[in-house]
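ARCHIVE CARD
Drawer: 12
Card no.: 0347
Subject: one protein chain, sequence and derived structure
Cross-reference: see card 0346
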Amino acid sequence: MQQFAHESSGEVAYYAAHDSWYAVQVRSRQEKQLLRQLEYDGFTSFLPLLNRVSYWSDRQKIIQEPLFAGYLFVRIDWTPESRNAVLRKPGAVALVGSKGLGTPIPDKQIDDIKTLLARNVEWKHSPFLQAGDKVRVRGGALDGMEGILLRENRDKTLVISVDAIQRSLSIRVTGYVLEKI
């Protein structure tokens, strides 16, 4: 496997040159057009689409819209040539990741999205939360409570702190709706 070094602001990052998925940020409402252009040029691309019923006064129509508005996925070798070939396409803004260079997305994550859509499983958008985020509980007995999100053994734990006395309490919040604040 060949590696490429990229130096920016004194840091050197190494990227492996192998076939990986990358997210491409796309101009508003250009996802389908860019998908067609990439596939025409031989790139393996993926645009997860949802069917939504749109109602007009005289009719209704099923419309396909992107699951993640403003993004699509492309499988490329991480080389300057392949990156530039994608980014030169009308509608492409940037590869998503550090310094616009793109961050590889594990095949498993793309496969999971494909499986979810293929099996027509009920789902809903959820905020992207990470350990250390400040969050607020929405609904239930803890509605309005704020704290720092921890993750322990796949359980969500909220830490509520009293800064002045430097004391904290932790509460399991698995099953509660959390929003990032």
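Annotation on reverse: The helical segments are 31-40, 80-87, 107-118. The mean pLDDT is 82.
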